[in-house]
Amino acid sequence: MPDRTSATAAPAASPEALLEVTGLCRSFGDVRAVDDVSFVLPPGGSLGIVGESGSGKTTTARIIVGLERADSGTVRVRGQAHNGTGRGRAARLARARRVQMVFQDPYLSLDPRAPVRAVLAETLKLHFPGTDHDARIHELLDQVGLGARAADARPRELSGGQRQRVAIARALAVRPEVLVLDEAVAALDVSVQAQILNLLADIREETAVGYLFITHDLGVVRCVTDDVIVMRSGRIVEAGRTGEVLGRPAHPYTRLLSASVPRPGWDPRAIGAARRALAEEDAAAS
Ligand SMILES: Nc1ncnc2c1ncn2[C@@H]1O[C@H](COP(=O)(O)OP(=O)(O)OP(=O)(O)O)[C@@H](O)[C@H]1O
Question: What is the pLDDT of residue 84?
Fold first, then answer.
């Protein structure tokens, strides 16, 4: 089996990195939510973070966008420190221009009563005050496949997929370098999910924005990421090229995640076997 566990535990400092996370740690009481997490996202790359519920994916994402503080470790965007210092308004806006986040539920992140035009204008005014934003609003709607008519709709009048397009447009409004997508398609039905994933692939090609995809869905990871890290109990247990990690998982935990996905010819007993292998590995490690 390939050893993919040590390569990412301490990535070499890379002048080419778009996003570089090094030795990130965060505990809540006794819970080590994020435990020495390090990875590199290259410019225009797409990296998936997978793991079961509670493995530390969201806490990692929240630290990267500045919604949560780290106990230790660094986050750098194009070599510049992105966490820790600079809590003032200007520093917060500068951080937001570099890294934006799209959440699972656009209902919670969008004001349901504000027309889409106002949602986008608010973000544009905040980051680019004193300019006329009409043309940019139409450009953004076009970019996410919504017609100009959507500008006057309120989020509650839109479908789930359309709302998520608005949330993506709002994130793109500041021309971020990194987009963190936290279970961004999990609430959508599969056909709409596919449309949004296609849209995100097109946007990456057009803009060279880098993606950090937080998801528990290995199908999503397979579709839209180049590289993946697998988290368990706050730690990275495996990392590498997505096709290789999912095609030939090296760690018993990754094998368990993979065995848990129903597919043609799938035998649910594989889950039991994978669980036993993981328990054996845990026992040997303790
Ligand atoms: N604000 C908090 N206070 C206390 N514990 C927290 C807090 N945020 C996260 N945790 C704990 O940290 C661990 C990691 O949580 P996190 O949400 O990062 O995992 P996750 O992999 O994103 O899970 P999910 O897929 O369910 O969102 C969990 O044990 C969680 O209960």
Answer: 57
